[in-house]
Amino acid sequence: xxxxxxxxxxxxxxxxxxxxxxxxxxxxxxxxxxxxxxxxxxxxxxxxxxxxxxxxxxxxxxxxxxxxxxxxxxxxxxxxxxxxxxxxxxxxxxxxxxxxxxxxxxxxxxxxxxxxxxxxxxxxxxxxxxxxxxxxxxxxx
Length: 141
Description:
The chain folds into 2 domains: 1-31, no CATH class; 32-126, no CATH class. The longest helix is centred in the first third of the chain and has 14 residues, at 5-18. By secondary structure, it is an alpha/beta fold. Strands 1-3-2-4 form a 4-stranded mixed beta sheet, sandwiched between helices. It has helices at 5-18, 46-50, 66-71, 75-86, 102-115, 134-140; strands at residues 34-36, 59-65, 90-96, 121-122. The chain is elongated and about 55 Å long.
């Protein structure tokens, strides 16, 4: 499953073509397991993002789940990027399937080595449990 707004649009164009409408469509674009995001740029590189950054400003990665990119539900990530830029920081939005996945971990290590971030905003920690919680006690058994 590739997902993303552009792939969804092409799926609809393909369906229209199957119904006899003269529509041009494209095969699904591959969505990486982990990568960089920037509004309006398909599969941007670090150099692409740097073109949007202010010189001499600190870099702050925003790590978020790939599922947001697949669904096109990126308003919160876009807002975080805007807020960081307004605060004089350079946002570095990075999507991942899981921080436990080697490709994601390696990408983040590489990006941190290349950008020396001032801080990291991690938006992937939604399933935390407190010490002594039922989930933790069950995992110990």
